[in-house]
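Subject: design request, 566 residues
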């Protein structure tokens, strides 16, 4: 392992706060407007200061960037856009020396169509061993002119693209649950399985502490690839209806979708579990699996499979006390039943940032997210207030929490990007009907001064930053009492000091239906999701998401109190 040995054998991931870095948008050291690994290394001390335990890096591997790096053309190298393998070594050593663990992304459902494996499959032709590594099929219809089935891409449009044979005639079709540049592997292939074991070992040998597994519920498809019509909302990542996610990544998809949550995926993770277990230290697998209900998702984290799964049910829950209480109970029970910690998450690079999402109203709440047709954009003041309260609640909960870069600054979704700047394939595949996810991927502001708010040493950032983000820059919040950054720092420090992450939830009634209040060890947490003020119970106020006047907790505010000893 490179860098400092972190304490092994502690199952650190059960209580960890894991900070997601989206490399394109975190920090740019070479001035080309795109974030890079050297930029991340330089900023790690600020994450140490924030108080996180680990970082998760979204993909930085060689890629044509058709899906912002989730289209990998070499799993064991760094894209020149982000640096070199040496830069990765420096990043990891710097992180480990600071006591920060490093989780990297792995994208096993599909590769880039530029990957040598896919190019070899195209060249080798139907029936070849190379084609058996991906999901090629003959088309239907007289001349194979119709797709093999009716599946739709998560990003819009058909999930199949027809190939052209070397002589120019139309050939077989290949499956891509995402963009046409992301062909799906066929995980029935033992060759594919062996390649991915090797990829895991490549990064484990370099000392990574684990993997976030992309589309961890999608790798196995039902035999015969039967037709399937998802609910009206269109393409879906699976899971239950969300209130305000980017459209298309959640829907009322029954568990029978023949491309999601098939039993065969579990054999793959049992195998990967063994690969990780052969390494010293606590290496982890974290599932991106949009599976409902939570009791079903818990299958991904049975003791011999993965260690964590993103709790998207929590992310999808509106700012509403009864619903929050019920999803918290359900999460602790479902994950607890299989001996896994619950995770908690409010934002990531695929969803509308929670400082905007929690203030969406009406129609926008019904799974339409923010798009060109959105009427009534979220109120940013209300959104930030709710986001601070929601984060304060989340960070008090037992288990492991995920943060997405910029939420500690209270960044909202960037809702008015110029169309010419958009890069998300969803935007292109839906002919501009859906914005996609660029609005949550805008480079983050470090300093109020300068063209790109300290993000880049050059002048521009790859997506334009809203002018008002100057006021949210880290240097404007650092050390400023009451800032969102200081709220996060305080929450992370108290969470550690009071061992909240390894505690329990004991609900306290009596504050009315709009309040979620509970005891975790010697701390009482009171989250007021309504608009009317309530009286706080006895106890010293340790943290409040808004300034308190006397012992009143206003609406959309969360407070932590130290319990009074009898
Ligand atoms: C989930 C990732 O989080 C998302 O960004 C990506 O587009 C899809 N998987 C496809 O890899």
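Subject: RE: design request

Done. Sequence follows.
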């Amino acid at each position: 392992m490179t860098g400092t040995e972190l304490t092994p054998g502690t199952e650190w991931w059960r209580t960890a706060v894991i900070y997601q870095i989206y490399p394109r948008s975190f920090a740019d050291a070479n001035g080309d407007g795109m974030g890079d690994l050297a930029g991340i290394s330089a900023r790690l001390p600020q994450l140490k200061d924030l108080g996180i335990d680990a970082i998760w890096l979204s993909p930085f591997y060689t890629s044509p960037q058709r899906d912002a790096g989730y289209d990998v053309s070499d799993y064991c190298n760094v894209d020149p856009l982000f640096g070199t393998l040496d830069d990765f070594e420096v990043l990891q050593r710097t992180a480990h020396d600071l006591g920060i663990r490093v989780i990297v992304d792995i994208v096993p459902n599909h590769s880039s169509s530029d990957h040598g494996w896919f190019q070899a499959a195209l060249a080798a032709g139907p029936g070849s061993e190379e084609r058996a590594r991906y999901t090629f099929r003959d088309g239907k219809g007289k001349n194979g002119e119709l797709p093999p089935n009716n599946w739709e891409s998560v990003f819009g449009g058909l999930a199949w693209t027809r190939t052209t044979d070397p002589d120019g005639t139309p050939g077989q079709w290949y499956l891509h649950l995402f963009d046409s540049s992301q062909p799906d592997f066929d995980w029935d292939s033992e060759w594919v399985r062996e390649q991915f074991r090797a990829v895991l070992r490549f990064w484990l040998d370099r000392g990574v502490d684990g993997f976030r597994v992309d589309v961890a519920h999608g790798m196995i498809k039902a035999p015969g690839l039967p037709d399937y019509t998802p609910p009206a909302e269109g393409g879906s990542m699976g899971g239950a209806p969300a209130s305000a996610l980017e459209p298309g990544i959640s829907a009322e998809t029954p568990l029978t979708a023949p491309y999601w949550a098939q039993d065969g995926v579990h054999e793959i993770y049992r195998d990967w579990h063994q690969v990780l277990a052969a390494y010293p230290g606590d290496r982890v697998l974290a599932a991106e699996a949009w599976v409902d209900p939570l009791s079903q998702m818990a299958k991904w984290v049975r003791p011999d499979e993965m260690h964590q799964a993103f709790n998207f049910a929590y992310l999808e829950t509106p700012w509403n006390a009864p619903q929050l209480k019920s999803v918290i109970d359900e999460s602790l029970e479902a994950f607890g039943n299989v001996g896994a910690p619950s995770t908690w998450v409010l934002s990531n690079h695929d969803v509308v940032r929670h400082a905007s999402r929690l203030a969406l109203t009406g129609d926008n709440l019904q799974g339409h997210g923010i798009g060109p047709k959105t009427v009534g954009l979220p109120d940013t003041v209300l959104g930030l207030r709710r986001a601070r309260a929601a984060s304060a609640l989340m960070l008090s909960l037992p288990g492991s929490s995920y943060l997405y870069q910029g939420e500690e600054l209270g960044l909202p979704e960037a809702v008015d990007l110029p169309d010419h700047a958009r890069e998300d394939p969803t935007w292109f595949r839906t002919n501009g009907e859906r914005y996609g996810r660029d609005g949550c991927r805008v480079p983050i502001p470090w300093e109020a001064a300068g063209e790109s708010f300290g993000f880049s040493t050059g002048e521009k950032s790859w997506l334009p930053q809203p002018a008002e983000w100057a006021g949210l820059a880290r240097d404007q919040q650092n050390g400023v009492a009451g800032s969102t950054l200081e709220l996060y720092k305080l929450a992370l420090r108290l969470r550690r000091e009071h061992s909240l992450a390894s505690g329990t939830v004991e609900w306290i009634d009596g504050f009315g239906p709009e309040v979620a209040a509970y005891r975790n060890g010697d701390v009482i947490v009171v989250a007021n999701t309504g608009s009317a003020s309530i009286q706080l119970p006895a106890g010293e106020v340790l943290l409040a998401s808004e300034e308190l006047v006397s012992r009143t907790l206003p609406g959309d505010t969360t407070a932590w109190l130290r319990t009074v000893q009898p």
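Residues 12-109+190-223+234-242+258-487 form a domain with the TIM Barrel fold (CATH 3.20.20.80).
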